[in-house]
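In this section we walk through a basic example: taking a raw amino acid sequence and producing a predicted 3D structure, encoded as discrete structure tokens. The instruction is simple. Fold the sequence below.
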Amino acid sequence: MLATSDLPAGVVNLLTGYRKELIPTFATHQHLRGVGGVVSADERKALQTGAADSVKRLRLYLEQEAPVWLSDDAQGLEAIRAWVEFKTTWHPIGA
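The resulting token sequence is shown next.
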């Protein structure tokens, strides 16, 4: 599905592995700009500590606070607003 979509290469990346190995890497990797998900208290602490060096955006829910993704409350733009960056590009016309 992704191979035939209109998304540019690199927009969607699927990474597999064990959580205990991936979380420290996600937290400290300089090219990741944000991490979101449902985590345990220990995982949350590791992500917050590691993310402080690269000033990455975090949206973490503890397991007991996990949102119901199919509810009406989770269907608005507020869920993604923290992840969107707006940039203005000027296109001069003429010489």
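Looking at the output, two observations stand out. The radius of gyration is 17 Å. Residues 36-66 form one domain. In the next section we compare this with other chains.
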